[in-house]
Write a structure and sequence with these properties.
single chain, 199 residues, alpha/beta, four-stranded parallel sheet, 10% strand, globular, disordered C terminus, Adaptin protein
């Protein structure tokens, strides 16, 4: 599906507020929630909810809590060391620290594979591109890239979801099967026992 020759695996990270259609930006286009649901559950692309964690329920995709669990129980055997987050003040890590956790998780679990980490966020986190294989998109630029065919993944079909603003938990009949734990099992299968942290 990629528009260029590469062996990189894409990992998608989505903010929620002012980014996704369930809480869109007042002045710009938002990412249809159906895109996220389609890629995560039909195409089985790794998708992580790294902003407002309500998106985990709305898309049935994993978030920061699941990433921390995998790191502590299957990768390092100890808590992840966030660089800039103080939990006296924050119930979840700051934006960039959560994204770094997802990156470190994949690089530790799959050391022989190359990844491209894509973050879609209305906040500018493009400075992460200096740290590793990150690409930042503002949501309106991301939608345009997907629609124009400039993004590495194909646009989900227009009939893939009932309404672009409808989350899974708002209907008794979601448009397709979903499995929130699939990506977690993939990582657990790769690292069956905890190993020492290389950090």
């Amino acid at each position: 599906m990629s528009h260029h020759e590469t062996t990189e695996r894409i990992v998608l990270c989505f903010d929620r507020d002012r980014t996704v259609s369930v809480n869109p930006h007042p002045e710009h286009r938002a990412v249809p929630i159906g895109y996220i649901q389609w890629w995560a559950h039909v195409e089985e692309i790794p998708v992580w909810c790294t902003g407002n964690q309500h998106l985990r329920v709305e898309t049935e995709a994993p978030g920061i809590q699941e990433a921390e669990y995998l790191w502590e129980e299957h990768i390092a055997g100890e808590e992840y060391e966030y660089e800039n987050s103080q939990f006296e003040d924050y119930w979840k890590p700051r934006r960039r620290d959560g994204l770094r956790l997802v990156r470190d998780l994949y690089e530790a679990a799959f050391p022989d594979e190359d990844f491209r980490f894509v973050v879609v966020d209305d906040a500018d986190v493009s400075d992460l591109e200096d740290e590793g294989p990150w690409t930042h998109y503002f949501p309106w630029d991301f939608v345009e890239a997907v629609e124009s065919g400039d993004f590495a993944l194909e646009e989900p079909p227009s009939d893939a979801y009932r309404n672009e603003g409808v989350p899974f938990n708002s209907t008794n009949q979601p448009d397709f099967e979903y499995d929130q734990k699939r990506e977690l099992r993939q990582i657990q299968k790769r690292v069956r026992t905890p190993v020492g942290s290389e950090k």
